[in-house]
Amino acid sequence: MPSDVTSEIRTHGTPRQAAALEARLAEAARAYERERYGDALSLLRELARALPTVASVRELYGLTLYRLGRWKEALRELQAFVELSGSVDQHPVLADCERALGHHDRAETLWAELRTAGAGSDVLAEGRLVMAGSLADRGRFADAIALVEPAALRAVRKPLDRHLRLWYALGDLYERSGDLPRARELFRRVVDADPELSDATERLANLR
After folding, report:
1. List of residues 6+ apart from 71 with CB closer than 8 A
2. Contact 43, 24 (CB under 8 A)
3. What is the DSSP string of 32-57?
4. What is the Cα–Cα distance from 80 to 68, expressed in whole angstroms?
5. Residue 16 pLDDT
6. In the chain, which stretches have pLDDT less than 70?
7. Measured distance CA(87)–CA(91) in Å, rounded
8. Which of 82, 98, 103, 151 has a CA that sits 20 to 30 A from residue 132's CA?
9. CA dist., res. 141 & res. 32, Å (int)
10. Which structural domains are found in the chain, ordered by start?
11. What is the DSSP-derived secondary structure letter of residue 13?
């Protein structure tokens, strides 16, 4: 567990109480990593009550709620995380919750904040994908493609996971907008790099 989190938890209660809280947070993190979201939720619900000002607790609680499709509750926890930490790392998840609730204007606001906040490449790519999805939800395929294309078509020697996800998303947008040749090209890129990624192999086969 990061030392700053440990230090923050140790300000709550006696050393024995703090140690117990640390152990429960570590257990919740393991459950989350193993996709046992129900188990993580049970632990984090109590931890959030005991440690309401610990940003990492509110963050993990929010992410767990997000994985369970509990959008409004996830928003509450992740907004608390932002207020406590000042971080934009979970802005893509916040935007996806807003998108799921049909609040596309709020998703756009979060994307605008993320673009100007100096976020890391992975976080920025994830935010771009969510915003493109929001545009596509409203039938704005040309706008979604214009948002993803510059990042997806940038030349890279060794594609990382974010590049493959951008290629896949762009292929999906091309297909949905009726541009099947370009869709084939993008899904081919994905399959060449990682044939196990999502259903890219199947989608490429269906486009032949």
Report:
1. 97, 100, 101
2. yes
3. HHTT-HHHHHHHHHHHHHH-TT-HHH
4. 18
5. 83
6. 1-4, 7, 12-13
7. 8
8. 82
9. 34
10. 139-208 (1.25.40.10)
11. S
Q: What is the pLDDT of residue 17?
A: 80
Q: Residue holding tokens 């049970």?
A: 42
- Counting residues of the chain whose pLDDT is more than 90, the rounded percentage is 87
How far is Cα 79 from Cα 75, in angstroms, rounded to an integer? 6
pTM score = 0.92
> Alpha-carbon distance 109 to 104, whole Å?
9
* pLDDT tens digit sequence for 37-50: 999 999 999 999 99
Query: CB of 88 within 8 A of CB of 114?
Result: yes
List all residues 6 or more positions away from 192 whose beta carbon is below 8 Å from its beta carbon: none
Locate 137 and state its tokens.
Answer: 């939800």
Q: 144: alpha, beta or left, given left = phi > 0 and alpha = psi -120 to 50?
A: alpha
Residue bearing tokens 């756009």: 108
Task: Give the Å distances, CA to CA, from 193 to 67, 159, 188, 200.
Answer: 27, 8, 9, 11
Question: Shortest CA distance to 57 belongs to which of 28, 37, 34, 20?
Answer: 28
Q: Give the C-alpha separation, 114 to 20, whole Å.
A: 36
Under a CB-based contact definition with an 8 Å cutoff, are residues 189 and 166 in contact?
A: no
Cα 155 to Cα 34, 72, 129, 170, distances in angstroms: 34, 38, 18, 15
Report the C-alpha gap between 99 and 134 in whole angstroms: 6
CA 94 from chain center: how many Å? 8
